Amino acid sequence: MSILIDEKTRVIVQGITGRDGSFHALSMREYGTKVVGGVVPGKGGSEVEGIPVFNSVNEAKDKTGAQATVLFVPARFASSAMKEAIEAKLEIVVCITEGIPVLDMIRIQESLEGRETRLIGPNCPGIISPGKSKLGIMPGAIHKPGGVGVISRSGTLTYEVVYELTRSGMGQSTCIGIGGDPVVGTGFIDLLQLFQEDSETQGVVLIGEIGGTQEEETAEFIREYFTKPVVAFIAGRTAPSGKRMGHAGAIISGNLGTAEAKIKAFGEVGVPVASSPGEIPGLMKNLLAS
Amino acid sequence: MNIHEYQAKQLFERYGIPAVKGEVLETPDQAFSLAKEIAAPIILKAQVHAGGRGKAGGVKMAKTADEAREKASLILGMSIKGLKVSKVLAYKAEEIRREAYLGITIDRSAKRPVLIGTSEGGIEIEQLAKEKPEVIYKIPIDVSNGQLGDIFESMASNIYPEPELAAQASDIIARLYKIFVEMDCALIEINPLVLNDQNNLIAIDAKINFDDNAAFRHPEWEQMRDPSQEDSREREAKNCGLSFVALDGDIGCIVNGAGLAMATMDMIKTAGGEPANFLDVGGSSNPDKVLNALKIILSNSRVKAIVINIFGGITRCDDIASGIIKATQSMKIPVPVCVRLTGTNEDKASEILKGTDLVTEKTMPDVIRKAVELAKKEAVKK
Fold first, then answer.
1. Which of A82, A168, B113, B141 is the most buried (most CB within 10 A)?
2. How many angstroms separate the CA atoms of A26 and A278, rounded?
3. Within chain B, how many helices (H) and strands (E) appear?
4. Are residues B215 and B278 in the same domain?
């Protein structure tokens, strides 16, 4: 098993005719993802390498039975594209787009409450269930099917960690990049709940970074509810206060959101924090063996 | 994006929030003339994009015109947290009866804006939150709710038991929220909101940060930008489409992705070195980006070695390698460059880098260890 997506998940790509949208739609299909259509307003009836393009998400869903969407839509149009996907009641919405205003995301968040739709992102690499399906931009080849779940606020740092896991023989059940923005659809805790129920997942790697208090809240959740082994990594120990470190959400405000506080919080609940990505597989192996 | 106090107060004026506006001065003589004209004690405040101005000596009171000139000249010459002060905001000192705090920011966990208020204003809110969290009120706001009057009133009466003052405060909060939403703020703050001797509430200070992601729908922000408050290399990097933050160390970093860039900095520190910068070249792999990144890093003469750490996904390693070669041909690179390229097209990349005097390594720890070692050797040479 895996969480969120598997080889049966039927996927559409919003913004499929753009440079990134078409490139990644094809690379997803090549990986094995069931890419059943694309959506670009005004370009319905055309196709991208055999993938039919529709004018609206509703139409695409009716004609293809799509359950999930991946968005490659420019920031200024992304929130209305997300809204369309939410109103069409797709189960999974993955928003890759970076640079969406936080107040737009807050409005999207409010429109999600009480609905079944799960939003991943924005500003994220997406989801992959290795060997089954990927909804995102990560390089498929570094992944390997297995029993470690990965949840991360980052993109390439996740690849680095996955690469280390794979090299040391540890495959992954599902890897999710939740996004580098201050307000994202799905957080660490939501996904830990899914991993808790997933029989294939034996342990979870959490990759956090400076900014906000999500890691601290997650540590508390792990102590109370999560029973599988967890290894954490926190980026930004050397980041200065008050500076945005690339990601909109990666900023220490005053004394809030430091790496030290997060490392301490995980330490207090018995979650080992690796000091480099290369240490993660060893720590996980030890936990799984004991 | 930060703006100055005087600019925030201009916005307050536009939205009808009572504030002590004052005059923006750039010379000590202007302070002399203003103090003479007012003929009462004046307050002089450094206009700088840094917190803790008061503690740094950037806020002073002057009782006479001569004193105003002297103190303005002190403030105008100073730097606060590395930022030069070139403007002073000056106004007549207010009679202060009480000081409160009002602010709105984003509560990430609640995924909503949060209204924050306390009757104990005038000190740093973070300090207060540590010492007396019980006196701070926080109310999350539903942005889709058009009827927020009750929320504003309840916050106002938490701070002011007197109905008349609560009514004034509630009106100020409503206007503050209007600015927050209409101007895409990440933070808006009045600290302190003062009760003066005429029994009126008035903003003595004003702080606003904008959400950079919303810049596309606010062309007017560009005019509020003060280039003197930005690091020149950070500005140049931004123009080249790079995300860059200057740090104090001597090992330059070029990395793709913000998380990996932070992890690279951290590992440099663990290996006994100090990073000179944060730099994310982004997802696309335009070779010119690498060239520009190297130029910006080398404009800092402290840099003694450079790490290039790329995990190719969308970024193609061969494009990065071509960019490095292009840079070595078009400029002199006086320090060792240690390169690690893994992922998409890494074989082509190592073909391209063959025969150069670049230091190449296969893994992240190896390339970092090597750069720290070489930087130490360079330091000894100099």
1. A82
2. 31
3. 13, 18
4. no
Q: Which of A109, A209, A256 sits opposite B111 (nearest CB)?
A: A109
Domain of B82 in residue numbering reads as: 22-92
Q: Kindly report the CATH number assigned to the domain that includes residue B248.
A: 3.40.50.261
Cβ count within 10 A of residue B323 = 23
Residues A27-33 have a mean pLDDT of 97
Total count of domains within chain B: 3
Catalytic-role residue among B91, B101, B160, B177: B101
Q: Average pLDDT in the B293-303 region?
A: 95
Q: What is the complex's ipTM, to 2 decimals? A: 0.94
Whether B1 is covered by a domain: the verdict is no
H or E element in which residue A24 lies: helix A19-31
Structure tokens that stand for A125 in this block: 């690499």
Interchain CB distance below 8 Å, B364 and A212: no
Mean pLDDT of all residues in chain B? 94
Statement to judge: residues B200 and B236 lie in one domain:
no
Least confident of A118-127, B77-86, B260-269: B77-86
Looking at residue A269, what is its pLDDT? 97
Q: Is the same domain home to B246 and B271?
A: yes
Q: In A, which residues are within 8 Å of B255 by CB distance?
A: 156
Contacts of B112 in chain A (CB under 8 A): 106, 109-110
Give the per-residue pLDDT at B230: 87
Q: Which residue has the tokens 């670049």?
A: B358
Q: Clarify whether residues A149 and A243 are in a common domain.
A: yes
Give chain A positions within 8 Å (CB) of B124. 254
Q: Give the bridge partners for A235, in sequence order.
A: A209
Indicate the residue among A89, A120, A151 that finishes a domain.
A120
CB contact under 8 A, B266 and A237: yes
- Which domain, by its residues, includes A55? 10-120
| Beta bridge partner(s), residue B309 | B255, B340
Residue A35 β-bridge partners: A11
Sort out which chain A residues have CB atoms less than 8 A from B109's CB and list them: 212-214, 217
**Identity of the residue in A102, A156, A249 whose CB atom sits nearest the CB atom of B260:** A156
Please say if the pLDDT value at position B100 is more than 70.
Answer: yes
Instruction: Read off the pLDDT of residues B224-254 as tens digits, 9 standing for 90 and up.
Output: 999 889 888 998 998 898 999 999 999 999 9
Question: Which among B114, B183, B260 is the top mutation candidate for probing chain A, defined by the most A β-carbons within 10 Å of its own β-carbon?
Answer: B260
